[in-house]
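User: I've been trying to design a sequence by hand for this structure and keep getting stuck. Would you show me what you'd pick, starting by listing the structure so we're on the same page?

Assistant: Good idea, let's start from the same input. This is the structure you sent:
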């Protein structure tokens, strides 16, 4: 049995039928980061993420990440494009030391890009970013050996682990539905 709604004709707010077939939408797919607890220490010590959307079919994951000063992620390879909008703080890639990303900065990374993210030790506040990734970040050690993968599946695992630890009210969009995890 399919969990997806059957296509139908959409209507205007006055009731006029539109001449195209669409999937019926019974509610907005929306998440308010002020109302959802972050997954604490999820991608490293002090790194908290609020999961906004996971799409296992396309491999897309959308997060709001809060990263403390002096944190570094391993060098990583993007299998697909990534977009980062910096809301607060400052961060850089080691490979581009003269291009700091600060509040208001938007960064697009094409698939195949490789870099090492860090927040400077002298940051006076946490760095907060909106991140959208299609595909995976394949992480490597400084010696070039495989370290780990961050993708929609691993983020789902972190959500499930948090729920198992008792975190309640994790609300995020999964496919074409809004999920509230941990309130069962």
């Amino acid at each position: 049995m399919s969990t997806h709604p059957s296509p139908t004709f959409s209507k205007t707010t006055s009731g006029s039928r539109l001449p195209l077939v669409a999937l019926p939408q019974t509610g907005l797919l929306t998440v308010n980061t002020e109302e959802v607890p972050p997954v604490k220490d999820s991608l490293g010590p002090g790194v908290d993420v609020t999961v906004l959307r996971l799409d296992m079919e396309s491999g897309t994951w959308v997060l709001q990440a809060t990263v403390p000063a002096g944190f570094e992620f391993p060098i990583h390879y993007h299998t697909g494009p990534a977009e980062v909008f910096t809301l607060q703080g400052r961060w850089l890639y080691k490979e581009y030391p003269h291009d700091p990303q600060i509040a208001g900065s938007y960064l697009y990374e094409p698939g195949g890009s490789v870099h090492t993210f860090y927040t400077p030790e002298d940051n006076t506040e946490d760095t907060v970013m909106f991140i959208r990734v299609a595909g995976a970040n394949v992480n490597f050690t400084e010696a070039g050996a495989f370290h780990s993968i961050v993708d929609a599946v691993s983020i789902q695992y972190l959500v499930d682990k948090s729920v198992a630890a008792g975190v309640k009210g994790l609300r995020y969009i999964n496919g074409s539905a809004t999920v509230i995890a941990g309130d069962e």
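That's my pick for every position. To get oriented when you compare it with your attempt: Helices lie at 152-164. The longest helix spans residues 152-164.
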